[in-house]
Amino acid sequence: MNGKGWDRVRTARLGGDGAAAGTTGIGSRRTGSVQLRQMSSQTVRLGRVQPQAPSHRTIYCNDRDANLMARFKVNSVSTTKYNVLTFLPKGLFEQFRRVANLYFLMISILSTTPISPVSPITNVIPLSLVLLVSLIKEAFEDWKRFQNDIAINSTPVDVLQGQNWETVPWRKLQVGDVVRIKQDGFFPADLLFLASTNPDGVCYIETSNLDGETNLKIRKALERTWDFLLPDKAAEFKGEIQCEQPNNSLYTFTGNLIIESQTLPLSPNQILLRGCSLRNTEYMVGAVVFTGHETKVMMNSMSVPSKRSTLERKLDKLILALFCGLFLMCLIGAIGSGVFIDRKYYYLGLFGNVEDQFNPSNRFVVTILTMFTLITLYSTIIPISLYVSIEMIKFIQCAQFINKDLHMYHVESDTPALARTSNLNEELGQVEYIFSDKTGTLTRNLMEFFKCSIGGEAYGTGITEIEKGQAERLGKKLDEVKRSDTAIHDKGFNFDDARIMRGAWRNERDPEICKEFFRCLAVCHTVLPEGDESPEKITYQAASPDESALVNAAKHFGFFFFRRTPTSVMVRESHVEKMGNIQDVSYDILNVLEFNSTRKRQSVVCRYPNGRLVLYCKGADTVIYERLGDTNQDIKRLTREHLEQFGSAGLRTLCLAYKELSMDVYEKWNEKFIQAKSSLRDREKKLDEVAEMIENDLILIGCTAIEDKLQEGVPACIETLSRAGIKIWVLTGDKMETAINIAYACNLINNDMKQFIITSETDAIREAEDKGDPVEIARVIKESVNHDLKRCLEEAQQYLHIAAQSLALVIDGKCLMYALDPNLRVNLLKLSLSCTSVVCCRVSPLQKAQVTSLVKKGARKITLSIGDGANDVSMIQAAHVGVGISGLEGMQAVMASDFAIAQFRFLTDLLLVHGRWSYTRLCKVITYFFYKNLTFTLTQFWFTFQTGFSGQRFYDDWFQSLYNVIFTALPVIILGLFDKDVSASLAKKYPELYKEGIKNVFFRWGVVAVWAFFAFYQSLIFFYFTTAASRNGHNSSGKIFGLWDVSTMAFTCVVVTVNLRLLMACNSITRWHSLSISGSILAWFVFIFIYSGVMTPHDRQENVFFVIYVLMSTFFFYLTLLLVPIVALLGDFLYLGVQRWFFPHNYQIVQEIHRDEVEGISRTEFLEIGNHLTPDEARSYAISQLPRETSKHTGFAFDSPGYESFFASQAGVLAPQKSWDVARRASMRTSKKTSPK
What we know:
Blueprint: H1 3-13, H2 18-21, H3 26-40, E1 42-45, E2 48-51, E3 56-60, H4 64-68, H5 87-95, H6 99-110, H7 121-153, E4 156-161, E5 164-169, E6 178-182, E7 190-196, E8 202-206, H8 208-211, E9 217-220, H9 231-234, E10 240-244, E11 255-259, E12 262-266, E13 271-272, E14 277-279, E15 283-290, H10 296-299, H11 310-340, H12 363-377, H13 386-402, E16 418-419, E17 433-436, E18 443-454, E19 457-459, H14 465-473, E20 488-490, E21 493-495, H15 511-523, E22 528-530, E23 539-541, H16 545-556, E24 559-565, E25 568-574, E26 582-593, E27 601-607, E28 613-619, H17 621-626, H18 633-648, E29 652-661, H19 663-678, H20 683-694, E30 699-710, H21 714-723, E31 727-731, H22 736-745, E32 754-758, H23 763-771, H24 774-802, E33 807-812, H25 813-819, H26 825-834, E34 837-841, H27 845-859, E35 863-867, H28 873-878, E36 881-885, H29 892-896, E37 899-901, H30 907-946, H31 957-967, H32 969-978, H33 984-989, H34 995-998, H35 1005-1030, H36 1043-1065, E38 1068-1069, H37 1071-1091, H38 1107-1111, H39 1115-1142, H40 1146-1153, H41 1167-1170, H42 1175-1184, ...
Parallel strand pairs: 17-31, 17-35, 31-34, 32-33, 33-34, 35-36, 36-37
Antiparallel strand pairs: 1-2, 3-10, 4-5, 4-6, 6-15, 7-13, 7-15, 8-9, 8-14, 10-11, 11-12, 16-37, 18-19, 18-30, 20-21, 22-23, 24-25, 25-26, 26-27, 27-28, 28-29, 29-30, 38-39
């Protein structure tokens, strides 16, 4: 709907033309509005009425009855997943979405039928325990959310009732209510700001709950509503708000306020969002616009996209393989049953009326029914407790290990690492590509004004870290520049040039342009001053560190911005009229054309005290240069040269320009600006179009250069990650020169690399851009990009085959836009994957996400994105793993991430230590689960051949039920938590170890096949050794052993062996390993002593009554218990020995190198951190340093071969392993010499 449409709306709403509106009653106004809303919300199509949602909402302030018909949402908020009625059905639905749980439900149902050989309790008990644990966890988490909701919904707020303020809980607020919020209070809903105790109707708010930014923001009420502050005046407020429907856009709002027939445009400046808090204001009054789940913050509170790890998806394939194995076993047994069943076996009594399952007359039915019988019998092959165990392991890994790691604790900001999800721990151990933002991620985001160019003259004598790095690469040595007496190094300002400091600019060639430069810095911004109005004590609250640095620079140059009102800024100017003269000047701010990522510039229209009208503009060089007039070509050329110099030095640049305005031109433009600002449709687009009308024919003043230093430890971290086989890409919005130099500074690119640069700054593209035809420009750029990609790809393949040289790709955003075209992206992907490092410059947030998705989906590699700002959110959510830096740009990146850290360098610990440990541990947990369940089920399978394939069970029902839940449950969890192949320090010392995770060495089908082979071998030993040995055995009363004696003996051997096998799989053995394994074996004996010693009627337990006592009275039991585990584990022992000796993994080589070193942490290692610990933390740290059992590496204590190949791989040289080195090395061993004390 256009502007005229809204005029018709207002006319209809107000009951006629504007003059009559003032005399129209509220009732008629309401009726007209309702009729209009009904008309506008219907579309007639083929004679039928199709209801459609209205494009706007109408709110009557201070009139609850009028708002009843609209049925707005209540202000009560619920963040829970369940309620009392939905908890059980919804919770069970969530659990049975897992294939394994659904499978066991089917098995449990089957076990209640007559064809089941086992009691239903065998399957129901484990399933019930798993579901109970999961539901209790869900209920506990939801209960905490419920308690939080109650606390929030019960928060008191003052609401206008009649002419008095009454305190009510938040949940009772309604749309249209007028509320009062006191200082430091939170806004209970989205409010229209009406009035405040501050002069000029302003208030200050903090939005940290929305975006994490703690700097204060200013909001200004409409001048027409300033009087509605006291309750008697506020009661007279009967405005009507027409605004957009609820949406999740935090930074936009479109609406109008109609008050006494006057229509006033509303903007985000008048809207106070729920969750923000009031600061530096005694109290304010507002009208409720959106409530409850329709508030902007609640509409943004959707969860982070659900991510599943690659290992979990591969686990699904393993479960599917087990299903196939189960089906094959059942099919063999079913066919065997159909073939075996025959009346010739007279002793089976298959004559007369026989059950269908054993009726030889219908062998097909026998086969089908036996199939179902065996499915229930072999159901233990699928490990039901696997998912619960993995969840528990991952949760503890996050809560105890990642979140509490002192190596990832940042002392200065008091920020620990934070795992926001436990689903992706092992994914951290397989990352091959890292996509990183630059500003605030690789750099500190602490901006310092360092250099500038004014009127074609460059100022600033400092040398940046990047320039020093460049000189070192070229073998030059830069002499330190002696700082002058006028040099100042303050927060946000690190500048040295006596020519323009302390008023010296008055002596420059063109002092007037210097004056414009400093005034532009002091006036063109949205910074809020706080504290005393003195240069030493004032602090600036800015939307970005760049803004603050520029205003600080103006202060040090003698143009001190110290006060802001909604319509003006006050600047204390020094040395303007004459040296030493100081005067306070007030500049009226008539319009602010705000910065956004599309415009890439900010402008203000200001009026001098003498009436002069000036537009000041600052922004990116590409944007400003497009809008310059044809004058001052020399300044343009010189400034562009300076921009390139500053960019090469790694500095962030902005251009400054201005334009003189006449009153006539301004007034005509301002009318259009006000119309655009009042528009309810496409307001942002119309404002941008109006801005274009005045932001032209600008006069260039100069440019600023701000230094953003690298974070501590970034170069070392990137070098370590590169050695680990991880490829790092930098995606930044900076200029190409700046990005390349930052890449050099942090060891991402070096002179040994072959660099491919694809840029839009070519003569052909510039020529096309000068003509101005967008179709021609697009064609030229696309052809150029296509040609460059093909050329670079051919060169890259030559270099890789001939020189084996590292490659680097640098591409700018304009070229990237065309390179991501479906026809070109294949070549882009091939070229990118050939390169060790990739730098993308001038890229938008959307392009960051597109590049990440290209590698994730196109190359099927595991990706990690890391960033610190709102512009990195899409990239973070697009990658397999998203990491947020809790830096200076708010918390939006952290809130969208899976893991949060304070510094880029902590990636080393997160990936190489915790990621690698999680991956290796979970691989062992999954394969061990697979092994122990397959071993147990195969013993039952071999017994089926001895029973005519009848489905007779080998084990007692309770043995089968508790095998996974008690007798083998705890040790595998301990393995997943505490197993450690190498220490954290060694994992970082030998980053090449991480490559095993990238190649997925520990969870391949070959690894699964080895475990399956030994499960097959051990099951044969358990069954045939125990059955063969018991044939001639007898108990003390002379009776031969029966089925339950043999099966109990076999089950004892299984429990002992699988627990001991886990001990062999451990790389480090702690007291927890010993306790869990011995405790599990002991639990079996305690259970069987009690279970076989007590007999109850009406159950099947009489089968094993007194069995263990009979068995333990024989020599056979002890001999079998000694020999069977030894024979069963002999194959594993030999395999592990041969593998470690002849085909060692890299971590095993490192173990052998450092096998004589006692693992421990030196006290000096945490000295710096220790000095900043709280008393409780210091006590915990002191306890951790007490002497205790140290982890010992298990395995063979001899020199492993592969030393040469391992160290050669570190040096980048291929040296294949030689297995015969073992004998030579073993024969040359000499006793270790002890050093004299």
